[in-house]
């Protein structure tokens, strides 16, 4: 009654949101970046899902150092754009899908992943910037995002962060949860899963401003061709090659793990499906002090 049809991967740089909100997206500095998402916005219009599961990291908005869950799923009916210190972004309130959220929580926890269930959560740029990039500007008062969104927060801020392998396996568990969902209306839900964050960047210390183009391009390529091998990369390699904030890229592996070509024989699953179809790939530097990467994959 539900299936994951596509995965979207993108950086969620806060300055991108500010550029959109201040209508600077056509300025020479920003225009090349936003041009890279024009095809994505057209694809999104033609492939509008019923629900998006959006994997992101909270930036001390919903959680702080007093409580940081490793994995947290939003189970509310709606989510307010957060005030990150300069007022909330002028974007619509995010509508949730509480029934599917609750089902995913139950199914994934029964698959031995410990999720924190969150019934109230303000969502920051980690979630709203990807929506803006893929869906375009929306009227903050009378507008709406194209579909409900399930926020799925991952701790990549405070040590220890989950491993890439753990994230890939979690994506597989989320796919199994989605495929076992039965909607009350009897409708088959078209679900997309988005992995956000990264790419290479470091915001502090002697290596502040680090960008590693070779690593970023190789990472995107391996997301398509070798996700199982990529999942084995240790944390120290992310830090060494992509900077302290490069660890956000493990969240891409959750979305990649949810694609139908990655089946788990230990869970009794049949032979893997075909490799996903690559729809669009984009990479740009710089955006603020960050490398921006983007990829869209469709299940075959």
List keywords for this structure.
300 residues; 8-stranded mixed sheet; 20% strand; 10 helices; single chain; alpha/beta; globular; Protocatechuate 4,5-dioxygenase, Chain B
What does this molecule look like?
The protein is of the alpha/beta class. The protein has one domain (2-298): LigB-like (Protocatechuate 4,5-dioxygenase, Chain B, 3-Layer(aba) Sandwich), CATH 3.40.830. The protein is built from 10 helices and 10 strands. The protein has helices at residues 14-21, 31-35, 38-46, 98-110, 125-135, 164-179, 213-225, 227-230, 235-242, 250-257, and strands at residues 2-10, 51-56, 71-74, 78-79, 94-95, 116-118, 149-154, 189-196, 277-287, 290-298. Strands 6-3-7-2-8-1-10-9 form an 8-stranded mixed sheet, with helices on both faces. It has a two-stranded antiparallel sheet with strand order 4-5. Helix 1 packs across helix 5, helix 4 crosses helix 6 and helix 6 (164-179) packs parallel to helix 10 (250-257). It is globular, with a radius of gyration of 18 Å. 46% of the residues are buried.
